[in-house]
Design brief:
Blueprint lengths: L1 H24 L2 H25 L7
Length: 59
């Protein structure tokens, strides 16, 4: 779960970067998809860290 959380965290960060870039370009559809990606993956990482701690406990 630890590696998956890191990968999802990177995807969330890239979604945030994409949201900022699409705001600069005034692309509404790109902004929507990037923000949804950031929100979903970021929420998963946040709740995983909140529930299991970091580093996650295996037992």
């Amino acid at each position: 779960m630890n590696l998956l959380m890191v990968i999802f965290g990177l995807v969330a960060i890239l979604g945030l970067i994409g949201t900022v870039q699409s705001l600069k370009e005034k692309s509404i559809l790109g902004m929507a998809f990037n923000f949804v990606t950031f929100a979903v993956f970021g929420w998963f990482v946040f709740m995983t860290i909140l529930n299991q701690g970091f580093p996650p406990s295996l037992h």
